[in-house]
Design brief:
Layout (H helix, E strand, L loop, with lengths): L23 H5 L2 H17 L5 H4 L4 H15 L11 H4 L7 H17 L4 H11 L3 H4 L3
The protein binds protoporphyrin IX containing FE (HEM).
The site of protoporphyrin IX containing FE has 21 residues, from α3, α4 and α6.
């Protein structure tokens, strides 16, 4: 089950990107079922990826799956609210490096490919996520 976290202010702004203003991308991702499959596959790939698996050990992956689905839904124009923490707080002191971010993006691309998300639609999501390296990667 999900573990409690320290209190924080809930806001869609915590998602770290502005959403697309229509639901075309949400539909290209096959809506709630598609995004759910992509997030499940992404988290499993990260756990099984020797490049980054250590970072996912002893973390609340129940919570991660839930809020990651919300975040993708929010950004893709699916009309969800994002209830998670902001990207800086969520990744603080994990020591995440650029190469870790690149590995995670590769895993997300694989998950989107398996879901048969059209390539252009994949790139629209990746373009929203890319600037988040500033909050996620530690120097
Ligand atoms: C654009 C890139 C990324 C996005 C959009 C993203 C998104 C998120 C979100 C929404 C959360 C949960 C926030 C919360 O609990 O309130 C989270 C947590 C987490 N992220 Fe990321 N993340 C990104 C990059 C990465 C990278 C590169 C890694 C490691 C390779 C990583 C590892 C983790 C881990 C282990 C947690 C769980 C933290 C915990 O349980 O407290 N993330 N991420």
């Amino acid at each position: 089950a999900e573990q409690p976290v320290a209190p924080y202010t809930q806001s869609d702004a915590n998602a770290g990107a502005t959403p697309f203003t229509n639901d075309r991308l949400w539909r290209a991702f096959h809506g709630e079922a598609g995004v759910s499959r992509i997030v499940e596959d992404l988290v499993a790939r990260n756990q099984n990826d020797p490049r980054i698996s250590d970072i996912f050990k002893n973390q609340d992956l129940v919570r991660l799956r839930r809020v990651l689905k919300e975040q993708f839904c929010y950004i893709l124009g699916g009309g969800c609210s994002y209830t998670g923490r902001d990207m800086r707080a969520a990744h603080k002191d994990m020591g995440i490096q650029r190469a870790d971010m690149a590995a995670l993006v590769e895993n997300l691309q694989a998950a989107m490919r398996v879901e048969r998300v059209p390539f252009a639609a994949q790139n629209h999501l990746l373009a929203k996520l890319a600037p988040m390296h500033r909050e996620v990667v530690e120097r």
